[in-house]
What we know:
Elements: H1 3-7, E1 27-32, H2 36-52, E2 60-65, H3 71-80, E3 86-94, H4 100-119, E4 123-130, H5 133-138, E5 140-142, E6 145-146, H6 147-172
Helix pairs in contact: 2-6, 3-4
Amino acid sequence: MSRSSAFLSEGPLEGCQGGLEGKDLHVAILVSRYNAIITGRLLKGAKEALLGHGVTLENCEIFTVPGCLELPLLALKLAKSDDYDALVALGAVIKGETAHFEYVCQESSAGLMCVALKTGLPIGFGVLTTYDEGQALERSGGRWGNKGEDAALVALEMANLLRKIHKKKDSRQ
């Protein structure tokens, strides 16, 4: 089973699903430059997933920020612009010797969730929070796949699901 079909696999749970068609979707990818070797690999996975599912180069924009704590602010600005159907947030936080790791992980993830809930815009979460660089490499195109790709697929599915729900609502009015 391919990674894409794993997201849509038939199983005991049935119901309205979004699908992964990206043909008419506008998507922004937000990338932290901190740990650029890792985030570059996440970006590559996200771009390949989006382009592979029909998002055109014209409909996919990439924005970079210094670090993961800056992702929520940019996400909020982009979400409020009404120019995008989904966002993909990519970053890598690798544990060091201080508590800084915990704060960055918690606040960046909470900030992105807050933006999604406040604006209703889906955000594929591709921020790695690992204990060492080896784990980050394994999750950015290594043994554990590419979480950038996974985040992009989640963003597509959620954007399509929300469109489907919106169309159902419109048809009842």
